[in-house]
Amino acid sequence: MFDGFFVRKVRRAFEQMGVSLQLVVVPWRRALHMVEAGDAQGYFPAYRGAQRDAEGQVFVQLDDDGWNWFLLRESPLDPLADSFKKSAKVAGIRGGAMQKWLQDNGYNMSKCPAAVGELVEMLVVGRFDAILDSRHTVQDILRRRGLEKKVRVVQMKTSPWGCIFQRNLFTGIRTS
Length: 176
Fold this sequence. Notes:
7 helices; Solute-binding protein family 3/N-terminal domain-containing protein; D-Maltodextrin-Binding Protein, domain 2; alpha/beta
């Protein structure tokens, strides 16, 4: 059974509601397409956006986390410095919002893996200088693998994280 910070939060929430849940763990981009095609009822983690609201999707907040840079503890780089964008080799989850943001904003991108665990391992072995991801997700992986002392975190921005569901899943339920 797949385990992770957000998986545990989602399972716990559905258990508390007394609703049975079938989780299928797939790469983030595939989950998005499965929901769009009607093959799944939701995906996570995600953040709220105008496009999702316009498409009639429901955002259910799980955590107030944000976008965070992770670097090796001994790295002299400062992700908030102007020079970082061009000098540091960075990565995010392939197909995710952070990878798109890094590309759109001209960062020196490395080849991005599809899973956070791979992203963390690649950072630790020096494949890139920094990764951009959710603090809770990465810190959970670092803690489980005994790597928390090797990495430092720099917050870039706060942003609530949650689940995106198709609105018809909540027919008759208030979702404000």
